[in-house]
Amino acid sequence: MADPALSDSQVEQYWRDGFVVAPRLVGDDDIAAYDQRFEDIVYERVAIDDRMLVMKDVMVAKGVIDPSSPPERIQKLQDFELDPVLDGYCRHPRVLACVERIIGEGVMTIHNMLINKPPNVDGRHPLHQDLLYFPFRPADRIVASWTAMTRITKENGCLVAVPGTHRGELVPHDNPDWEYLNGGYFGVKDVGDALDRRVHLEMEPGDTVFFHPILLHGSGRNRTDGFRRAISAHYASVACEWTWKIEDSASRMYRIVSGPGAGEQWNGTRKVDEDGVDPIDFVPTGSPLKDDIRTRRDAEQAVGRSPSDRDD
Hints:
Blueprint: H1 8-17, E1 19-22, H2 28-42, E2 53-56, H3 58-61, E3 74-78, H4 87-90, H5 93-103, E4 107-117, E5 125-128, E6 136-137, E7 142-148, E8 159-161, E9 173-174, E10 187-188, H6 194-197, E11 199-201, E12 208-211, E13 217-219, E14 228-237, E15 241-242, E16 255-258, H7 288-303
Antiparallel strand pairs: 1-12, 2-3, 3-4, 4-14, 4-16, 5-13, 6-15, 7-12, 7-14, 8-11, 8-13, 9-10
């Protein structure tokens, strides 16, 4: 088992490359618990909170394939803050210790998911930047953790990352011209020579990669007969500021997990600033995300809502 926090050299590597891998950070018992919970959820053995998203792979949703078992149908579990087992990952002491080494004390979760890459589907994710999905800034105070639940190789669709690209800026994304693309799997419009510079992150169960939200990264197709699974969370400093022009972000929960106020919801100002970041500028025309953002913005403007008179 690795030491619970990143070493100085690992932190230096993170800021140099935009990512760093902590081997065997999460123990076998925890991985087994997350894996069993995934199986229990997709087989509907347990009740789940309505806010959790259980997402089918696009090839299943479109009827291109008809898998024989529930785990072969599901691509992702998302927003599991209220799940008694999976939420343990977001609060995992070893993970949080590493997160605090990167973004400092006082941390909140801003996103989480368990990614299941079954056999017989496309399942690729083009090179992208995670900051696209988040309203908080500065980017240097946001970090992702991504923990392998199975052995992850080039053959079953490991992560790829492009070292040093975290020193750039958030750029517009688009839908690649692929026949089957899961919802929200946008890719940067112009990757340049990034594909030639990418590195493959092959990992063992429990290995955890931490990466910057501007880092270009993606993943490949699962070409094996088995599953590729990982569990992930995004964290931000409670000192981060809301910078989007819209007030809300799909009603997502932002919960403090370390430092003062741990266990409480983040109650910072969700300011609506015309000089702020417009997320519509960075997502493809006609995407469900863009339509959802535009609909919520129009509704807020129509009723004259402001951050001070929210009713949720």
